[in-house]
Specification:
Helix content is 32%, strand content 25%. The protein is of the alpha/beta class.
């Protein structure tokens, strides 16, 4: 079996946001540990799902990968080149390969620009297409995402949420990227539209050979689109496994709790399933718990869980977990 090519390698990535108190003489009083030493690979042509509760650091991870946030520590390697060490023109050129689809299709499109201007803006910035070539490219992209090229001179407010998100997809494709970070691209859409956008992303992956980091909190949708899934909690990855393996054999207590909340299509099984209800609130990322981040809400927690940070280790082939008891 041929070895899979690593397109993106995230190595011990840390992103902290300092905060301060006071108005006139503000003084740094601490940091928010948004992403705290995570590591994973994304293979060429696959979809890696990144799931977890709101505020766990998923979106910050995605934005730090594309360098919208500068990493506090750690590295992000794209095709072997460390993006955290790039700046200026080198970073600008590298950004052609990694693009992003944002969560809110209402806020991520400039209301003063036409659809044609929005999609062609990356081409203007990177000088990849000009003149008639650019106009043809915009029309091709609109057709690719299932929109009529007659919409080219319309404004975002004239479109539904699903159509706006398709425009966002077309804009992300404008520079022929290899990797797209999808930051909860369906969470702001109606349920009836979500499947259409997911099917569009899957079709584009088959046609163009795209690679996705798919960030979401809807576990059933993530299973549908992802080859592998990483489960994140309070800035740390708790478990990483093949999609089917994670759903059939979750090893971390947090993964088990999340999956127990996913509805099952068989009413008999659903009626007899046991829901795992997590007690307490998610701790503050300003002052996270010692040892295992999840121990304050874990029913299996032992003394070692408070004393030592669990190693993120491979317990089965391609199945990684950060738990002392797994």
């Amino acid at each position: 079996m041929a070895q899979k090519k690593i397109l993106l390698k995230v190595d011990n990535l840390v992103k902290e946001f300092p905060f301060s108190k006071g108005v006139l003489f503000s003084k740094k009083t601490g940091v928010v540990h948004a992403v705290d030493g995570i590591s994973f690979n994304i293979y060429d042509g696959e979809t890696l799902g990144l799931v977890g509760e709101s505020g766990c650091g998923k979106s910050t991870t995605g934005r730090t990968i594309v360098q919208l946030h500068k990493a506090t520590r750690g590295s992000v390697y794209y095709n072997g080149e460390d993006l955290t060490k790039l700046s200026g023109e080198k970073l600008r050129l590298m950004r052609r390969n990694i693009q992003m689809i944002f969560q809110d299709p209402y806020a991520s499109l400039n209301p003063r620009m036409t659809i044609g201007q929005i999609i062609s803006e990356p081409m203007e910035i990177h000088r990849t297409y000009v003149g008639k070539e650019q106009q043809d490219r915009v029309r091709d992209l609109l057709a690719l995402v299932g929109l009529n090229h007659a919409f080219i001179n319309r404004y975002p407010h004239e479109f539904s949420g699903g159509q706006r998100q398709r425009v966002g997809v077309a804009r992300a494709l404008a520079l022929d990227p290899k990797l797209i970070v999808c930051d909860e691209p369906i969470s702001a859409l109606d349920v009836s539209i979500q499947a259409q956008v997911i099917n569009l992303l899957e079709d584009l992956q088959d046609q163009i050979g795209l690679t996705y980091l798919f960030i979401a909190h809807d576990l059933s949708m993530v299973r549908h689109i992802s080859d592998r899934i990483a489960v994140m909690y309070l800035g740390v990855i708790m478990e990483l496994a093949n999609s089917n393996e994670l759903y059939s054999n979750p090893l971390h207590p947090y993964s088990k709790a999340l999956l127990s909340a996913v509805p099952f299509p068989d009413p008999f099984i659903e009626e007899n399933r046991k829901r795992i209800i997590l007690e307490g609130d998610v701790p503050s990322p300003i002052n996270p718990p010692s040892g295992c981040r999840f121990r304050t809400r874990c029913t299996y927690a032992k003394e070692i869980c408070a004393q030592e940070i669990p190693e993120f280790r491979e317990v089965d082939p391609e199945h990684f977990v950060a738990c002392h008891l797994a």
